[in-house]
Design goal:
about 180 residues; L,D-transpeptidase catalytic domain-like; about 15% helix; globular; L,D-transpeptidase catalytic domain
Length: about 180
Amino acid sequence: MVIILFIFYGFYDHEPEVSINQSKIKEALAFCKKNKMDTTICIMLDMSIHSGKNRLFVYHFKKNEIVIESLCAHGVGGGSTPLKPVFSSYCTSLGKYKVKGRSYSNWGINIHYKMYGMEKTNSNAFKRIVVLHAYTPVPNKEIFPQTLFGQSAGCPVISNEAMRKIDVLLKAKKKSVLLWVYI
């Protein structure tokens, strides 16, 4: 088990090119503490980053570093502004989510994690069946300047490889983990 975590936990063939604003990290940690969520990692999804670049990051609070980065497709609705919490919009919604509950998925590596919206901007997430999942066509490497096409009805969608790495981390958590979608 230690070897598996060692392999998946924060090893890159390169250093991440992106850093997360430290004020966002402080806010994320405070939110996790206030809501009795896991305080070792969080998942940050920066929708201001081009979809052909890594924009989903697993951040380790204690190590103060990004340990996993991934491309992330968004909902098919809304074109280049895919950020609405409305039913049938097929858009990804901004805000903080509680990630908890591993379940079967028809997509990718056949697992997903349930997402519970914690703010007005994403309060319908669970009812809309917005989940974190993989989708086989999402590549493992950046494709910029090409874009990822929307691959979901509002779910953050990542590559199979990224989902395997994130699954190792999330399966080990007793508390829910923060996933924050922001611009």
